[in-house]
Each structure stands twice: as C-alpha cells, then as structure tokens.
Amino acid sequence: GQQLNQSPQSMFIQEGEDVSMNCTSSSIFNTWLWYKQEPGEGPVLLIALYKAGELTSNGRLTAQFGITRKDSFLNISASIPSDVGIYFCAGQKGSQGNLIFGKGTKLSVKP
Amino acid sequence: DSGVTQTPKHLITATGQRVTLRCSPRSGDLSVYWYQQSLDQGLQFLIQYYNGEERAKGNILERFSAQQFPDLHSELNLSSLELGDSALYFCASSATIGVAPKSGSSYNEQFFGPGTRLTVL
After folding, report:
1. Residue B109's closest CA among A71, A103, A95?
2. A73, HSE (Cβ side, Cα atoms, 13 Å)
3. Which residues of A touch B99 (CB under 8 A)?
4. What is the pLDDT of residue A50?
5. Is B65 exposed, middle or buried, given 0-12, 13-18 or 19+ CB atoms closer than 10 A?
6. What is the pLDDT of residue B97?
7. How many whole angstroms separate alpha carbon A14 and alpha carbon B37?
8. DSSP characters over B101-113
9. Contact A79, B34 (CB under 8 A)
10. Residue A1's pLDDT band (boundaries 50, 70, 90)?
11. Which chain B residue's Cα is nearest to A90?
12. Residues of B in contact with A97 (CB under 8 A)
C-alpha cells in the first residue's frame, strides 16, 4: 500500500538538543498528522495540520504543513528523556478517510 | 488512555487457525478503523466501518473480515492464519466531522487503542 517517506529512520541525540524529522509524499494530502508511539501503546496524536503552510506548536513541538501539500516536518526543541519513542507522520486525503503512515522515526535521547 | 479498548492484548496461535480481535470505540464515536503494524510494512490501513456499515477498504486480505455491531463495537476476524500475519493490530475510532478551530477545515481525529499483538507459530 501507499506509504509516506519519513526520515530519518532513527536518531540518537543528547538531552537538550533539538530534533527535526520530515515526511514527503508523491501525492497531496488535506491533513497531515504527527503521532508518537511508545512501547506497548497505540499511536497518540501530537499535532494535526489542516491547511497548507500552517505552522502549529504544541509545547516544545512544532510542525508545518508544506505549501505543496506533499510534505510536513516536525521539530522538537530541547529534547528530554521522555521524548523517547517512535514518531510517525500520517496523511489523510478526506476528512473521514483512513490514515496513510510513514515508517516512523525512532528517537533515543541520552541523558 | 484514549478511551478505545481492545481485547485481547496478546494472542498466540498456530498457522491455519482463526482468531477474533475485538474493539470498543470511544463513547459516541461512530467510525472504527483497523490497522495492522508489522516490522517490515509499518502501519497499514485495513478497513473502516461507520455506524455499522463498511466505509472503506485498504490492504485487507480476503482471509480477513470485519464487522461493526449495533452497539458500535467492532470485531476483526483473521482466518487461515499464516506466519506473516504476526503483527500488532490496532483499532482507532473517531467522531463525526468536527471543525478545526484555526483553519476552519473539517476533520476527524482518530484515537488509537492499545493494540492486540498476534503471534502465529
């Protein structure tokens, strides 16, 4: 099935560093979402973007919906150990449609 | 806690067998989605139900089927199981369309359950 190209695949960073990850697609999406998944849990929504060019923050997280509607990025500032997990981007074409996921970015934070 | 419950949490079975995974959506949510998460394929959409009716189908095998009952809970049935069916199966639910405050666009947020880990031996 269709998937989004998410990079990097994994990141090992020091506590306090900033993190950046992105997602690209060959097709247009109406909605871009960023989820975080921790071991033994389902994905949890972090940020949702509904408009091309939109820049949205949620605490230390900032995400942008690309102008072309084919990409999105997520930044995490001043990382802390509890940021550890797998971050997924997801695109949605219709307002009630299924989500198409990237393969995830595994984030490890060294105290 | 997302409010979506899934049972069982773990399931171990043998090839050729049939299993049923159960999902209870958040109170009031009419849509239920099933996703499969495997190491090589990532999270893949399987099927969506809305108020008891099938709404959309993704990469769901013919050996798999689902239904949504009048009380809105859903079941995913997997039959003639193969080793490659071992994966995490997630259910998500969403409400009817809302309106994003910033952009005014319509949207629905999907809330994921904790998943069922299926191991086929």
Report:
1. A95
2. 10
3. none
4. 87
5. middle
6. 53
7. 29
8. TTT--EE---EE-
9. no
10. low
11. B43
12. 56
Q: Which of B41, B42, B108 sits opposite A95 (nearest CB)?
A: B108
CA distance A65 to chain B (A): 12
> Structure tokens of B97?
């369309």
pLDDT digits (tens, 9 = 90+) for A28-66: 998 999 999 998 899 999 999 988 999 999 999 999 999
Residues above pLDDT 70, as percent of chain B: 89
Which amino acid belongs to residue A55? L
Kind and range of the H or E run holding B19 = strand B19-24
Phi and psi dihedrals of B84, rounded to 5? -70, -5
Report the residue from B44, B55, B115 with minimal CB separation from A1: B44
Q: Please tell me the predicted confidence (pLDDT) of residue A101.
A: 93
Calculate mean pLDDT across residues A3-26. Answer: 95
B65: tokens are 């089927």
* Best CA proximity match to A94, nearest among B116, B50, B70: B50
Question: Does B105 score more than 70 pLDDT?
Answer: no
Cis, peptide link before residue A8, omega less than 30° from 0: yes
Question: pLDDT confidence of B101, banded at 50, 70, 90?
Answer: low
Helix (H, G, I), strand (E, B) or coil at A97: coil
Predicted local distance difference test score (pLDDT) of residue B17: 98
- Using CA atoms of A47, A34, B75, B84 in order, give the dihedral in degrees to the nearest 10: -170
